[in-house]
Sequence to fold (97 residues):
Amino acid sequence: MNYRAVIFYFFVFCIFSAVLPFAAPATEAGYKEITAPELKTMLEEKKCLLINSLSKIEFDIQHIEDSINIPVVEMNSTTKLPADKSSPLVFYCMGKR
Fold:
């Protein structure tokens, strides 16, 4: 999956998260919501890259340990994403506002 598709689906998720159920199954697009315990296990086993998509200021104030910061406005130009495009990416932000 290319990074533009990941970014597109991330935006779609953010826009519609207020109306989508929080137990969304995996889709043909290749993304799904995961629970906090699932994320914890994935991080402990180093099976994903956790990405905070907020601004650097918001990231500096509060973030999940071991996450990296790639603000949404930098997604197309970042060099922080893994070269292996099959690596699972987990994006998070402040949730519903």
About this structure: The chain has one domain: 3-92. Strands lie at 49-52, 68-69, 89-92.
